[in-house]
Design a protein that fits this description.
five-stranded mixed beta sheet, five-stranded antiparallel beta sheet, disordered N terminus
């Protein structure tokens, strides 16, 4: 009978049983990010624990699908895996996305607490919402261009909106923006229309704090537009601020869709708060009046891309200089200590040039006591003499001499 295997042996065995992430998701090695994302969402919906409550095989498959997507959705990890396989990927640090609707009250409370403490908690859209959309059961409301609409959506629920644009409006560009004045957490979603009539999730933007509001937006301006995923750098920032600075723009990646075709498009607002509903204002705009803003956005994002390249070069220079500075600081402290020690030895040598015997502390102490006593006695004697002189000068009332003029009769 074989003995119990250690934890490390079990971990090695699980690594050997891992399947190729491309095979798990059913995509080829040259698949685009959008193809990988679409494959993941379909499989995650199929094997989600909400739909397979008592199926352990489905639960394992869901974990495998999520693990594979976490590798292939990250450009650096995907490149590392393509080069050296699983050994190059730090599997223990993979971030999982939580479906808050599947958590119990206690787990949701702990997740909310960790989020308040600054621990990055990545959440995913509820499987129930995605399934309703895929089955064509979502309640969709029309949204007119240029007319903001304010509502509240319950936690882990979604409001769906349809926007219709013309050929001219599609060529000019289209923008959908959402913000929350009470800083509610939400996700802005965009859905593709399936041939079956259902909707499949194509794009997702998590809200971010911008000043006194939380906001999210999608920009289809007919040229490459970039998005900044700040969750990539959140864990690194807590561990090493310097590394976090140099990795700050790693999450600056191009959006999968740059333009929309004429027709009807479906967006949704998903309430991502832990316990309460999310307040929001959604607005759909044609970008035709915003010519200057479009050019400014293109120019600024080009500069950000240049800065990302410069930052990579600067990181190498910074680390070299920092290593030299650390070395110089250590040497500075060492040199100062050695110099102080040498000067101390020099003073001791100077003090040794004398023929007088070393003074005893006891004799000096007794002399000090004697001299202090003499000073104290002299002071008391002077005080006595001074007080006697003062008393002699004072006249008593019965010694007052009265002068009488004898020439005047009484």
């Amino acid at each position: 009978m074989p003995g119990n295997r250690s934890k490390s042996e079990k971990l090695d065995a699980s690594k050997q049983l891992r399947r190729d992430p491309y095979e798990v998701l059913g995509v080829s090695r040259n698949s685009t990010d959008q193809e990988i994302k679409s494959a993941y969402r379909k499989m995650a919906l199929k094997y989600h624990p909400d739909k397979n409550a008592n199926d352990p095989e489905a639960a394992d498959m869901f974990k495998e699908v999520t693990f594979s997507y976490n590798i292939l959705s990250d450009a650096d990890k995907r490149r590392q895996y393509d080069t050296a396989g699983f050994e190059a990927v730090e599997s223990d640090n993979q971030e999982l996305e939580l479906d808050l609707s599947s958590l119990g009250a206690v787990n949701t409370m702990f997740a909310a607490l960790f989020s308040k403490l600054g621990v990055p908690i990545k959440t995913t859209v509820s499987a129930t919402v995605l399934e309703e959309a895929l089955n064509g059961a979502a309640n969709i409301r029309p949204l007119s261009l240029g007319q903001p609409l304010s509502r509240k959506v319950e936690k882990q629920c979604a409001h769906f909106y349809s926007v219709t644009i013309s050929e001219e409006e599609a060529k000019a560009g289209f923008v959908c923006r959402v913000q929350s004045s009470d800083k509610s957490k939400f996700k802005l979603l965009y859905f593709d229309q399936e041939e079956s009539g259902g909707l499949s999730l194509a794009l997702q933007e998590d809200c971010v704090k911008t000043g006194k509001v939380t906001s999210a937006g999608m920009y289809f301006l007919c040229f490459p537009v970039y998005r900044l995923d700040q969750t990539i750098n959140s864990v690194t920032a807590a561990k090493d601020p310097d590394t976090a600075f140099f990795k700050k723009l790693d999450g600056f990646q191009p959006c999968e869709i740059t333009e929309l075709k004429a027709g009807t498009h479906v967006f949704a607002i998903y309430g991502d708060n832990f316990f309460k509903s999310a307040s929001y204002t959604i607005e759909a705009l044609c970008a035709e009046p915003f010519v200057e803003e479009k050019e400014s956005l293109r120019d600024v994002e080009t500069q950000i891309l240049s800065k990302r390249v410069e930052l990579s070069k600067f990181e190498t220079e910074y680390k070299e200089v920092l290593a030299q500075f650390t070395e110089m600081t250590s040497r500075y402290a060492q040199e100062m200590q050695e110099i102080d020690e040498l000067l101390k030895q020099r003073n001791e040598i100077h003090a040794s040039y004398t023929a007088a015997p070393p003074m005893k502390r006891s004799s000096s102490r007794s002399r000090n006591k004697g001299s202090s006593k003499e000073v104290r006695d002299d002071g008391q004697e002077r005080e006595r003499k001074h007080s006697s002189r003062d008393r002699s000068k004072k006249k008593k009332w019965f010694n007052i001499h009265l002068k009488v003029d004898k020439r005047k009769p009484c």
